[in-house]
Amino acid sequence: MKELHHALAGLYDIEAPLGRGGMALVYLARERRLDRRVALKVLSPDLAADETCRLRFLSEARTIARLTHPNIVPIFTVDDIGGFVFFAMAYVPGETLSHRVASQGPIDPHQAGRLICDIGEALDYAHARGVVHRDVKPDNILLDAFTGRALLSDFGIAHSSHGRIPYGLLGRPAAPRGHVVGTAAFMSPEQASGEVVDARSDIYSLGVVAYYALSGQLPFDTLTDEALLALHVNAPPPRLSTVAPLVPPRLAQIVDRCLAKAAWERFPDAAALVKEVAEAVGERPVPLAVRAFLVRSAHLEAPALIHAAFTGVALMPATVAAWSSPASAVLRGIATCALAAALALPVIVQIVRVRRLLAAGHRSEDLVAALAARQARRREELAFVYGAGPTSFENSLAWLARVSLLLAVAALAGAVGGGAFAVPDSLMPLLSPVGAAAAVTAVLASIVARARTEQRTDPIGERHLRFWRGPFGRALFRLAGLRFRPVVPIVRILDHLETPA
User: Fold this and answer.
1) Same-domain status, 176 and 210
2) What is the pLDDT of residues 77-103, one digit of tens each?
3) Deepest in the core among 114, 116, 449, 471, taking most CB within 10 A?
4) Which domain holds residue 231?
């Protein structure tokens, strides 16, 4: 580290290590001439003397230098100073996909779809210029903390040829037959076998990445690389829908197709994959029937408020009074039936709305996908306006609420317990007002903090998504899908009410 500092003095200020790969170390540095932060990838000193490793490292630099794309980490310069071989590339503030999934679990299908599209577009650009990455994995995917973009890095074992890579069955070999390079957990069957590798091999690897991002686990997981390679070559992976049932079916089917053993069964190129994913995660317009379902029915708001007020203020107290007083069984039955009908009315209204959605040819998965896409966009907008996490002001309010609550409890305990808490008699008159003030402060701080949090998180939208994604929402779709004729024409009445004049 000291030797590197000394060798690059005057050009770069080394600030901190960022990571370590198989051949190189990556450091965060500041380029003095342009006063910008860069990531320096430095070939390990013990490998710098090896001509093969040196050429491979420089080959990576030349490969990346030819690629200029928003989703590929760009390279600025390559140099050999004081025995250190390195290149400087753009510093991407954020984290790798592997770190994101390890720390937060599987990512939202809409966000995963955007990630697949970002990396798919980068791969399509590279493939069009004769470059197969051959090591697409979560460690090589960087998530920009400011823009949310996914960027592809580390072309250390990429194969470069001239012109667009052929996608037919007779693709150009990316490595000599029998020579296996890459990361076992993300290798295509043909790459694991040391056979012909073309662009569709990267599509398989991206499919494994998508599987991991959406489910939090790999399709194959064994103790040795040899066993992993054998599974990639011979064993069918578990379908994504079996390990991540909440993933929209169409997106799950796309990932499963990427993991086909035969290259010709996958997508013909990355552009076709990106197109399918964009449609599956809601980048295309949402169908009219689904959009109409998502729109809050303004003409139902007033009846809904009247219904809630009437149920809470009149029916519930009347039913309780009927059962707690010596009323007749008939009166109790009438009150109970009226309350049950009032409570069932919102469910019936939702069933009517769901039936209209089903009649238009849509399923619960379509509604959930549209809701998830809407909430993902809403989260991005709110994070841009209010920040991605709690602000210092919100944290201060939370601590103020906790401290005030503890003070209120202590004051109450002192006032009630008296001498048991060894409170001086001179302070006893102050306990009640202090406790009351602390309690009021705790309540106000909690209300303000909650209001700020709800500003940033859209809790109503999140509750809607959880409801329709959960068992109750699925049960409503199953109930609405039953073929039955109502005993009374209430469904027709509600259907008429649902449709504005």
Assistant:
1) yes
2) 888 888 888 889 999 998 999 999 999
3) 116
4) 94-280
